[in-house]
Write a structure and sequence with these properties.
50% helix; Rossmann fold
């Protein structure tokens, strides 16, 4: 007859074996799912949130060697941050772009931040100065200023680093998303053509998507967007330019700099841009109006203007390195970097 002690040890060992089996099955399932995602062309991706953005925003303080990348999806997808860091090892490259949101509120925040004295590379187009778009990124900046904490930001950064290593943690590949896709399309999700890195930069692999419908979507969406509002008149444009100049001068006064980059659009998208915001009436006026402004327009350079944009608005991942290298060379030519 077994003693009570031996019986207790048996139950204890049995408990550990049960848990070991559960953990092993869980790891096997996760590993199998990761393998399936890899074989089917999925890439790791993270999701930008206010805490992660606040971590990036915090790291640019009191750092004259920082390069802050601000804008929306064009700079997020268009600049290769790995190339920037390799070619500019003495610089700290920080991505602050927010997909779908114009960056004027972030520029204003940097201008008002006495601790910022680095270089701002801002994706810019005339529409960004329309009064209704000025506050687009203010929610992120206000969160950073009044609600963010070191603990939450650091936790978001660690989480992003971890999620950027594993496909099964993709924000669009959760259980609900997969089941919903099966119920609506009777199939597993197709690989996503965009992915966001741990530093919140992103890439677009347009070989994974039917580009013609996507291109028409972007063109029609931009056309509707332009038609929604009456384009600002000359007086409003000059007032908005004065505000832009004020923010740029504030950063320059502390030893920092700002360069405005007009990222490429092409085909019907560029024709729409020209129809609603003609370069001669907007961009050229800006360059002539703001003293000591640094502005790079893709149409002024044969290399920047040579890339085919699959969706008419964004660079493919195969071209971002070449685009970034050319932009680095141009920034060196105007002595914004060494």
């Amino acid at each position: 007859m077994p003693s009570s002690i031996s019986n207790s040890n048996y139950k204890k060992n049995n408990w550990w074996l049960s848990w070991l089996l559960v953990v092993s099955l869980l790891l096997l399932s996760i590993g199998s799912y990761e393998y399936i995602l890899t074989k089917n062309g999925f890439k790791p991706s993270i999701e930008l949130n206010k805490d992660l953005w606040s971590w990036n925003r915090k790291t640019i303080q009191n750092n004259p060697d920082v390069i802050a990348l601000i804008g929306a999806s064009r700079i997020q997808l268009g600049l290769d941050t790995t190339t920037l860091r390799k070619r500019l090892p003495d610089k700290d490259v920080v991505a602050l772009a927010i997909n779908g949101q114009y960056p004027m509120a972030t520029l204003k925040s940097l201008a008002e931040d006495e601790t910022f004295n680095g270089l701002v590379i801002m994706s810019f187009m005339a529409q960004m100065l329309e009064p209704q778009y000025i506050e687009m990124q203010s929610e992120y900046n206000q969160y950073y200023a009044h609600q963010s904490s070191l603990y939450l930001s650091f936790d978001a950064k660690l989480t992003a680093m971890f999620k950027s290593k594993f496909r099964f943690l993709h924000p669009l590949l959760g259980f609900y998303d997969v089941v919903n896709n099966f119920s609506t399309k009777k199939a597993f999700p197709e690989p996503f053509y965009t992915s966001v890195h741990a530093d919140t930069s992103a890439v677009g692999d347009y070989s994974l998507v039917d580009v013609e419908p996507l291109k028409q979507h972007f063109i029609e969406d931009k056309k509707r967007n332009y038609q929604e509002y009456k384009i600002m008149n000359k007086t409003t444009w000059l007032v908005q330019l004065d505000k832009l100049a004020h923010d740029i001068r504030a950063i320059q006064t502390r030893g920092g700099e700002v360069v405005l980059v007009r990222f490429p659009t092409d085909d019907e998208h560029w024709l729409l841009d020209q129809a609603y915001y003609p370069r001669a009436q907007f961009w050229d006026v800006m360059v002539d109006t703001i003293p000591l402004i640094h502005a790079i327009h893709f149409k002024d350079d044969d290399v920047l203007n040579s890339f085919e944009l699959p969706d008419s608005s964004h660079l493919d991942q195969t071209d971002t390195m070449a685009f970034t290298l050319r932009l680095i060379a141009m920034l060196k030519d105007i002595q914004l970097i060494e």
